[in-house]
Amino acid sequence: QLAQALKLIRPAVSISPNPDIQLHLAEILWMSNGTGERAEARQIFDQLKSSIEPKNTALQRQLNETTRRLGVDAPLP
């Protein structure tokens, strides 16, 4: 149901580019497992790493846990 999730979350991101919503989009893209989707997800993860304010520790922690769980730092196949 990842394709359906993408159809629902992309408009949400365009309406409100909230970092939490972007993190969910990146996770869905990564789990879609296509090379293009993973590259887009990695770009979003990288953007979030540089844009989340340090005082937002909850979102920083969520981002770190998500990228670690998904193995995002590993090279793309």
The number of distinct β-strands equals: 0
What value does the Rg take, in angstroms? Answer: 12 Å
**Biggest sheet statistics:** none
Oligomer: single chain
> Strand percentage, roughly?
under 5%
Question: Explain this structure to me?
Answer:
The chain is 77% helix and 0% strand. The model has no long low-confidence stretch (mean pLDDT 90). The chain has 77 residues and is mainly alpha-helical. It has 4 helices and no strands.
Features:
mainly alpha, globular, 77 residues
Write the layout of secondary structure elements.
Elements (H helix, E strand, L loop, with lengths): L1 H14 L3 H14 L2 H17 L5 H14 L7
Helix pairs in contact: 1-2, 2-3, 2-4
What would you say about this model in short?
By secondary structure, the chain is mainly alpha-helical.
